[in-house]
Specification:
With about 70 residues, the protein is mainly α. About 55% of the residues lie in helices and about 10% in strands. The protein is built from 3 helices and 2 strands; from the N terminus they run ααββα. It has a two-stranded antiparallel ribbon with strand order 1-2. Helix 2 crosses helix 3. The two termini are about 25 Å apart.
Length: about 70
Amino acid sequence: VHPNQIAVIERAFRVSRDEHEMALKIKDPAMPAVFRASGAMCEKAVHERWAANITARAGVYGIVDEDA
Protein backbone atom coordinates (compact mmCIF):
# COMPACT_ATOMS: atom_id res chain seq x y z
CA VAL A 1 0.00 0.00 0.00
CA HIS A 2 1.33 3.38 -0.97
CA PRO A 3 1.31 5.95 1.87
CA ASN A 4 -1.01 8.19 -0.17
CA GLN A 5 -3.62 5.42 -0.15
CA ILE A 6 -3.83 4.99 3.62
CA ALA A 7 -6.37 7.77 4.22
CA VAL A 8 -8.60 6.45 1.43
CA ILE A 9 -8.51 2.93 2.85
CA GLU A 10 -9.18 4.12 6.39
CA ARG A 11 -12.20 6.15 5.20
CA ALA A 12 -13.60 3.00 3.61
CA PHE A 13 -13.52 1.25 7.00
CA ARG A 14 -15.56 3.97 8.77
CA VAL A 15 -19.03 2.90 9.83
CA SER A 16 -22.28 4.70 9.21
CA ARG A 17 -24.08 6.37 12.08
CA ASP A 18 -27.04 4.00 11.56
CA GLU A 19 -24.80 0.92 11.79
CA HIS A 20 -23.15 2.27 14.92
CA GLU A 21 -26.47 3.06 16.62
CA MET A 22 -27.80 -0.41 15.76
CA ALA A 23 -24.65 -2.05 17.12
CA LEU A 24 -24.96 -0.12 20.37
CA LYS A 25 -28.58 -1.26 20.74
CA ILE A 26 -27.57 -4.88 20.16
CA LYS A 27 -24.83 -4.61 22.77
CA ASP A 28 -27.08 -2.85 25.30
CA PRO A 29 -27.94 -5.30 28.12
CA ALA A 30 -31.21 -3.42 28.75
CA MET A 31 -32.52 -4.27 25.26
CA PRO A 32 -34.63 -7.43 24.88
CA ALA A 33 -33.09 -10.54 23.25
CA VAL A 34 -35.13 -9.91 20.08
CA PHE A 35 -36.30 -6.48 18.97
CA ARG A 36 -37.20 -4.46 15.88
CA ALA A 37 -35.15 -1.45 14.85
CA SER A 38 -35.19 0.52 11.61
CA GLY A 39 -37.61 -1.98 10.12
CA ALA A 40 -35.27 -4.93 10.75
CA MET A 41 -35.53 -7.75 13.24
CA CYS A 42 -32.51 -7.90 15.55
CA GLU A 43 -31.60 -10.93 17.60
CA LYS A 44 -28.77 -10.33 20.04
CA ALA A 45 -27.48 -13.91 19.94
CA VAL A 46 -27.20 -13.78 16.15
CA HIS A 47 -25.91 -10.22 15.75
CA GLU A 48 -23.60 -9.78 18.75
CA ARG A 49 -20.41 -10.55 16.81
CA TRP A 50 -21.42 -8.11 14.07
CA ALA A 51 -22.12 -5.46 16.73
CA ALA A 52 -18.72 -6.02 18.35
CA ASN A 53 -16.99 -5.67 14.96
CA ILE A 54 -18.89 -2.47 14.12
CA THR A 55 -18.11 -0.81 17.46
CA ALA A 56 -14.45 -1.84 17.19
CA ARG A 57 -14.21 -0.40 13.66
CA ALA A 58 -15.89 2.81 14.83
CA GLY A 59 -13.33 3.05 17.63
CA VAL A 60 -10.40 2.69 15.24
CA TYR A 61 -11.60 4.36 12.03
CA GLY A 62 -14.49 6.55 13.19
CA ILE A 63 -18.06 7.13 12.14
CA VAL A 64 -19.00 8.60 8.77
CA ASP A 65 -20.14 12.19 9.10
CA GLU A 66 -23.07 12.19 6.68
CA ASP A 67 -23.50 15.94 7.14
CA ALA A 68 -20.00 16.77 5.87
